[in-house]
Design brief:
By secondary structure, the protein is an alpha+beta fold. The protein contains nine helices and four strands, in the order ααβααβαααβαβα. It has a four-stranded antiparallel sheet with strand order 1-2-4-3, with helices on both faces. Belongs to the nitroreductase family.
Amino acid sequence: MEYFDLISKRQSIRRYQEERIPRRDIEKILNAARIAPSGKNLQNWFFFVLDNKEIIEDLCEVIEAKNAEISDELAKKDEEAGARFRKFCKNFTLFVKGAPVVILTFGKDYLPSGYHELKMCGAAKEELDYLAYKPCPGMQNIGAAMEHIALAATDLGYGSCWLTSANYAGAEIENLMKEKTGIDKEDYFFTCMMSLGIPAEGVHKSPNRKNLDEITLFVD
């Protein structure tokens, strides 16, 4: 597929067919993430690949439980807000239960160039925090890897959806992976996930994008 056709074809897909994805295709997709660019070639990512329905259901259970905990507490202050948050989880997160594959992406902090030097020079906390958390280069690395996953999946004929909608359950997701794998990825934390599968039949609409002149300024 031509590159610009590929990026135009990519959509966030939330409904999938039940057919499983062959392991070789999953590995091709992840290899695309592996070669993504990262600052100082840090490669500060790790991927847990869930292609077992029971484990995906377990994932959804811990997310739903955390959502219910927050929604119930929120409803004490604002009943409508609590109901909205519960509905948000159902519509924009729990659909992954129908995906054949869910990739959980863990990341590692990356303090950008100049941080330690500024700290040694006695820079104010506000300046250091701005450099560490505003440009957030560690998350830029993760973003590059995730986009590679989405484009590789599209090129192979699969749909995908990149989610950060369950980040409030990050600690619970991290604990679930420790429980299921026996592996503790020390210093790594849950950042986002990607659902994958063959798109269900029917129309999958994408929201409108801003015009180029709304997001661009040529500085001559």
